[in-house]
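Sequence in, structure out.
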Amino acid sequence: MPDPYFTPELFSFLKQLKRNNRRNWFLKNKERYEEIARQPALRFISDLRFQLRSVSPWLVADPAPHRGSLFRIYRDVRFSSDKSPYKTHLAMQFRHAGSKEGVHRPGIYFHIEPGGSFLAAGTWRPDPRNLAKIRDAISWNAKEWKKATRGLELGGDTLKRPPRGYPCDHPMIEDIKRTDFIAHLDFTDKQICSERFMNDFVKAARKLAPLMAFLCRAEGLQF
């Protein structure tokens, strides 16, 4: 079996960063971050490029050290009351090759955090045009939508009232009221640190693939 990508040291580091979310502390521990967090994550992304093809050839795993699939550890604090400079998790995004809009189009998001790691897939806050397309697809193809979401618990925001053009008694109204179309699967810390984690990740991505395929078809994207 190959060596694991991530080790328990990663979770120890993230816990320490949460307690010491200051620039001076991070600079003193930046080499640790590179060794046990950033470089393993880039290696995981690089290897995932080939594995993702079994899920969809349209999902992009970009191991570039800057502006690739791995999110920066630095927080954008410009519009936040929380001025903590660093994220206390690792995050990766595997977007659809046909779109540059990231989380606003169908894709995968991977989150690593002590006791709270997960893989999410779907579309977060699609623009009004694509939101209308998704709602129409759910309305017209309810059977396919139910099949695509079978066994998944959808999350995200939803409207309190039906959107314009849809009656309150529409059989799919609860899903039509959604403004996000996201599902996620959790991972334990032990799974993340296992030498079998790549297999677990791809298995989870395949489980979420029908949801992404439905959303892609609705928005006119290939999958």
